[in-house]
Structure formats: structure tokens, C-alpha cells
């Protein structure tokens, strides 16, 4: 079979095309492109089927695990694919590791080192129990996330664009610094002892629940991350589609009620907004995949992210 690889503007990416076995997979084609154009390793490539000029529909993305023949529509001798360079890629675990390492390191720096004396707040700082517990709570949270990244999550996408590392690190590292600066500030006023203990206790329960949700999500897929999307079942997933986001948001609420800073609440609102958008997309995807037609199960009625509101 001959495969012609063109860019979106119609220019040939691999001069003269590629001759490949009829039984080849899309991943074999990606390797063949890589061997001819060394810059474009397979995870950098997005291959789609060409669309008729002026068409507004989304192009079909070629699945690396499928055979090329599945895309030839009866004509097994030739195929034209459209190539897009996705740019430099990093593993998902690398992306998550760097974005979480920042807050894990930055927060204790504000706790242990009196950076405030360089900002005009001379003298000794007395740390309140709320500030100490907040530091442990925070570090536990980000340490847990790093551990989950390496030992729990089974990602369906192997890589993410390198540019996301810079974007996500900017988000997590700057919010981490902003909150750490205010919670560890010499002028910090703690909430009552009772409020602090109840809120941290509630937050900790939500963190454990969040870990449990991630373990349930892990078990939806095989060890290689294969198996596509499945209806999540069990524990809070029986009532809410994105129970992992629900518990994430509520654990930040616990942290904020215990520490009470504007910085912490700003982060909570931004994080909740981002997760709500993702949760709606995931809910829609599951409803579309499990539509109850042609023998497919019907996605049950569930809240999207924040019962009893959304
Ligand atoms: N504070 C913040 O700003 C913030 C923002 C986002 C996330 N987080 C935290 O980070 C955690 C991970 O976030 P995430 O967005 O990666 O979570 P996620 O997309 O909900 O999923 C976690 C893992 O489970 C898989 N998964 C989800 N639904 C599935 C289904 N129906 N069938 C099979 N597998 C499924 C995902 O696969 P895929 O690889 O296919 O997606 C992913 O590997 C969150 O739960 C939350 O605790 C925090």
C-alpha cells in the first residue's frame, strides 16, 4: 500500500510517499514517517483523513492501534493522510510531576524561612498551630498527587505538549506562592481552634475520599491504560460523574475554612471553575458514549460535579 503524507496546506511531508505492508497499523506508519523525518517522533504526529475542500466537520483522527486498511474504504492500494506536528511532547507523568513539585517545595519555604524580614516585617515570627497544620496538610496533598501520578492513574494519552508544562507550572507554582505567602505571614490571624480542627478534619476525610475515587478510576482500565472510557461505578460515583473533582473541591474548602485567606479562596474558585468545565465535558462524553442504543448501556442519571447544585 502507498501512503501519501501531506501537511494541512497540501504539501508532501514525506517526499514520494511511504510504501508499507497492507497489514500495517497506524503506529507502523508513524514509525515509518519518523524514520524519514527524524524530528517527528510518533507522539508528535497527529494523522487525520483528508476532508473535502470547505468542509466544516471535524476530521477523523487515525488511531495508532488500528490497521491502516480500516481507513482505506475499499481502496487498499493507496491512502492519503494529513499530518500535523503537535510540537515537542512530554509524558503525562512528567507534566504532573513538575506542576506538583513546585507547590510541594515552595510552601514549606515560606513556613521555615522568614522571607518576611526582607519585606519590612522584622523580629521573630510566632507560628500558630493553624499555620503548622496547614503546611502539613498542603504537603500531604501535593505528595499524594505525585504518588498518584506515578502509582495510581492510568492515562489514556501517553504525552502532552511541552508548552503545557510551562502553563501548568505557572498556574500551580504562582498560586502555591500566593497562598503560602499569606498563610505564613507574620500578621496572619488564625480562626478559632474548633473551626480549624473541624475544617482540617473534614478536608482530610475529603483527601482520603479523593484517593479512593482515583483508585476506583484506576480499576476502570487495564494496566496499559487500554479499555477506553467506562461508566464509573461505586462510592460517590454512584451519584456524581466526577466524584474525584467533588472531593478535590471540598478538600480545598476544608483547607480554606481552616486557614481563611483571600488567596486560598481565589484558588478554590479558579480550580472549581476549571474542574466544573472539565466535568461537564466528561459528563457529556459519557452520555454520548453510553446512549442506550444498539446494545450500549445507558448512562445513569447523575449529578455532574457538585451535588446538590450541579
Ligand atoms: N486543584 C486543581 O486545580 C485541579 C485541577 C484538575 C485536577 N486536579 C486533581 O487532579 C486529579 C486528576 O485530574 P484529572 O483531570 O487527570 O482527572 P480525571 O481525568 O478525572 O481522571 C483521572 C484518571 O482516570 C481516568 N478516567 C477518568 N474517567 C474515566 C472513565 N470514565 N473511564 C476510564 N478511565 C477514566 C483518566 O483517564 P484519561 O487519561 O483518559 O483522562 C485519568 O487517567 C483530580 O481528580 C483532582 O484531584 C486538581
TrEMBL record:
<comment type="similarity">
    <text>Belongs to the steroid 5-alpha reductase family.</text>
</comment>
<keyword id="KW-0812">Transmembrane</keyword>
<dbReference type="InterPro" id="IPR039357">
    <property type="entry name" value="SRD5A/TECR"/>
</dbReference>
<dbReference type="GO" id="GO:0016627">
    <property type="term" value="F:oxidoreductase activity, acting on the CH-CH group of donors"/>
</dbReference>
<dbReference type="Pfam" id="PF02544">
    <property type="entry name" value="Steroid_dh"/>
</dbReference>
<dbReference type="GO" id="GO:0042761">
    <property type="term" value="P:very long-chain fatty acid biosynthetic process"/>
</dbReference>
<feature type="transmembrane region" description="Helical">
    <location>
        <begin position="262"/>
        <end position="280"/>
    </location>
</feature>
<keyword id="KW-0472">Membrane</keyword>
<dbReference type="InterPro" id="IPR001104">
    <property type="entry name" value="3-oxo-5_a-steroid_4-DH_C"/>
</dbReference>
<protein>
    <recommendedName>
        <fullName>3-oxo-5-alpha-steroid 4-dehydrogenase C-terminal domain-containing protein</fullName>
    </recommendedName>
</protein>
<feature type="transmembrane region" description="Helical">
    <location>
        <begin position="229"/>
        <end position="250"/>
    </location>
</feature>
<feature type="transmembrane region" description="Helical">
    <location>
        <begin position="198"/>
        <end position="217"/>
    </location>
</feature>
<keyword id="KW-1133">Transmembrane helix</keyword>
<keyword id="KW-0444">Lipid biosynthesis</keyword>
<keyword id="KW-0560">Oxidoreductase</keyword>
<feature type="transmembrane region" description="Helical">
    <location>
        <begin position="90"/>
        <end position="113"/>
    </location>
</feature>
<feature type="domain" description="3-oxo-5-alpha-steroid 4-dehydrogenase C-terminal">
    <location>
        <begin position="159"/>
        <end position="310"/>
    </location>
</feature>
<dbReference type="GO" id="GO:0016020">
    <property type="term" value="C:membrane"/>
</dbReference>
<keyword id="KW-0443">Lipid metabolism</keyword>
